[in-house]
Every structure is written in C-alpha cells, then in structure tokens.
TrEMBL record:
Signal peptide: none annotated. It comes from the Bacteria. This is Low temperature requirement protein LtrA. The chain crosses the membrane at residues 12-33, 53-72, 84-104, 110-131, 138-159, 232-253, 278-299, 311-329, 341-356. Keywords: Membrane, Transmembrane, Transmembrane helix. Coiled coil: none annotated.
C-alpha cells in the first residue's frame, strides 16, 4: 500500500527505470540480430515465415516494457519494493534477450518460462500486498489472464517446430486481447487500466524514451554488423544510409507531435482512453523502427543486385509502419489527418514494384529519400508560424 504513487510524485523516469531500458535495448538488438539469418534462407516461404517469428518475439519484449512502465506509473519508483520488481524485470528481460536467437531452435522454453514467470509473479505479489484496496481485483484479473496466456507460451516452448508458431500466436492473442477487454474475470468484473489518469506525464515521457531506445538500437545493430564483418564501399554506404534514416525517423517523430505529448495529455477529455491509443501508436512506430533496423542489417549482409520480396517488405515496410504510427499520433495530438505521412506511405508502396531489380542499398536509399522529403515538408510547413497548441480529438 505504501508503494502507491501519491499526488505530486515526480513524473520523470528514475535511474532504475533507465537501467531497465538498457536490458530492453539488448533484447531488441537480439530480436534484430536473431531475425537476420532467416531472411537469407533459400526457401522464400521460410523467409516470409521468419517475419512472423520475429513478430512473435517482438510482442513479449514490447509487452514486458509496457507493463513495466505501467508498474512504475502506479507505484513509486523511488521505493525499495518497486525497485526490486524493476530489477527482477531487468534480469528477466536480459535472459529473454539471450534466448531470442535460439527461441525457435531449442531455446524457446527458456524464453517462454522467463516471460511467463515475470508476467505472473509481479501482479500476484502486488495483489497480495494491496489488501482491501480497490486495485486488488485488477491485479488478480491480470494474474489470471497471465496464467492462461502462460499455458500457451510454455506449451509453444515445449512443442517446438511449426506447432510453436501456433501456440505462441494464440498466447499473443490472449495477452493482447485480454488487455484490450480489460481482463474480464467471473466475480471480479472487468475494467480497463486507468493508469494514464494517475501518471499520464510519466507515461508520455516513457513512450518518448521508448522511441529513443528503439532508434538507439538501430544504430547499435548496424554499427555492430559493420564493425564485425568485412566491409567495403557498399557496406560503408549502407552504414551512412542507416544513420541518415535513423536521424530522419527521430526528426519526423519529434516534429511537434512527439514534443507536445504532455500538453496534449492535459487537453485530452479522456486521459485514460487517449493514453491507451497513444501507447498503441508508439508500439506501431517501434515495430517500424525495429523492422527498419532489420532492413539495414539485410543491406549490410547482401551483395546482390536484386531485392527479394521479403527484403522489400522489410526495407520499405519498416519506414511505412513508422509513418502509419506517426500519422495516428498526429491525429491524437492535433485531431487532424497527416497528409504528408499518408503520401509517404503511398510513395513507399508505389516504389516497391520498381525496387525488385535494384540492390538492397538502392532500396534503403529510396526509403531514406521519402523520409527526407517528409522531414523537409514538415520544416517548411512549420517555418515562420507560431507554436501549435495541442487539440486532441473529443
């Protein structure tokens, strides 16, 4: 009970939260590195299947980050009890990261057991400590649904092979679907998480920091790939394009909408619902950034003059996913449709049929050019105008 945040509690991220983020960077880097070999398989079907496997690894990592951010939004991160839970989560994230490369090659059980353990243990312990507090029912419901999803996560780890994909896909649906429905349970009711009403500014900052984590992982992944493998002019050009793309993603995100999240929260009529939608938009953008990082890894390891369809979907699809999430964020902050982002997605889609007969480097350069165009249009649109005031949709 004493761990619950009080009114006036500091909203900035603490050092222990940033320490947890270091483990997230490692886990995301392993997702990127672990997915690359599958994109060079001779069987096209296996290359496409690799994309699905990568998504099934990304979801638990992202889910654990989100639930940890909600934990520090609800409970005072300066207190020892909360810090113990954060360190427990950090260790779990690190072990999950080490198991990522072999998650579909014999180490899936390690990944699943660690994820399920932290997902079940945290809400169960919190429920026991809340006594008669009204939040106790929420955490008991979360515990129950985490146990149900855990059956499928662990079952997939035990099954292996093609069955593992099915088990883990069901587990992901149970985890995400139960959260979206408010974790309903007989006798305990259902209620959506209202944490954004309690610590909205904290969560707005944490989501912006998550974007920076993902962007940092992109630089880490391409830098490690470049420095640990033979490289020449082609790889050096790929490194430059990767850095330029990452810089442009950062610029496009923070151009107004990303900067104004806290003010937009204050203006939102329904902070809890608005915050859930903002969190989903950030998850889409992070998935786009991670996919972009995989695309740059493909550039570093490929020496062909053609770009296979699965490579195209990765190299161009990553920036497109990011722009979709960013367009949604702009609507949440300013209640308007971002035509520049929609045009960017359309340009990337239109370029895809033309990129099959050029090198992956040329494809990545095309994606960077589209992002540069959007960044320039953003700058031109804002030049000489007074700062915008957030106006979230009603």
């Amino acid at each position: 009970m004493g761990l619950l945040r009080r009114s006036g509690s500091m909203q900035q991220a603490t050092f222990v939260e940033l320490f947890f983020d270091l483990a997230v960077v490692f886990a995301l880097d392993r997702v990127v590195a672990g997915s690359l070999p599958g994109f060079f398989n001779d069987d096209p079907a296996r290359r496409w299947g690799n994309a699905g496997r990568t998504l099934l690894l990304f979801i638990p990592v992202m889910y654990l980050w989100t639930t940890t951010a909600y934990l520090t939004g609800r409970f005072e991160p300066h207190r020892a009890g909360t810090q113990v839970m954060l360190l427990f989560s950090t260790f779990a994230m690190m072990i999950m990261g080490t198991a990522v490369p072999g998650a579909f090659a014999g180490e899936g059980l390690v990944f699943a057991v660690v994820f399920v353990t932290v997902r079940v243990a945290r809400p169960a312990v919190i429920s026991l400590g809340l006594g008669s507090h009204r939040l106790r029912r929420l955490y008991w419901r979360v515990t129950a649904w985490s146990c149900l999803a855990g059956v499928f996560w662990v079952g997939g780890g035990l099954a292996g092979g093609a069955a593992q994909l099915v088990w883990w896909a069901v587990a992901a649906v149970v985890d995400l679907g139960s959260a979206g429905l408010g974790w309903p349970a007989p006798g305990l009711g259902r209620h959506r998480n209202t944490i954004w009403q309690v610590a909205g500014h904290h969560l707005a900052d944490r989501n912006a920091q998550l974007l920076m984590i993902a962007l940092g992982e992109t630089i880490l992944a391409v830098g490690v790939s470049y420095s640990t493998h033979p490289h020449g002019l082609y790889e050096t050009a790929g490194l430059v394009i990767a850095f330029a793309t990452t810089t442009l993603l950062w610029r496009v995100y923070f151009q107004k909408a990303g900067e104004l999240l806290p003010k937009a929260l204050d203006a939102a009529g329904d902070p809890a619902g608005w915050g859930r939608r903002v969190a989903f938009a950030h998850a889409v953008m992070v998935l786009g950034i991670v996919t972009t990082a995989i695309g740059h890894g493909i550039v570093q390891h490929s020496h062909t003059q053609v770009t296979h369809p699965s490579w195209l979907a990765t190299i161009l699809g990553g920036p497109a996913l990011f722009l979709v999430g960013r367009a949604r964020l702009e609507h949440l902050v300013f209640a308007r449709v971002s035509r520049r982002r929609i045009v960017g997605v359309a340009l990337l889609a239109a370029a895809a049929p033309l990129m099959g007969r050029v090198s992956p480097l040329a494809t990545a350069t095309t994606a960077a050019a589209v992002l540069l165009l959007i960044a320039l249009l953003d700058w031109r649109n804002a030049a000489g105008k007074p700062p915008e005031v957030p106006s979230p949709p009603g």
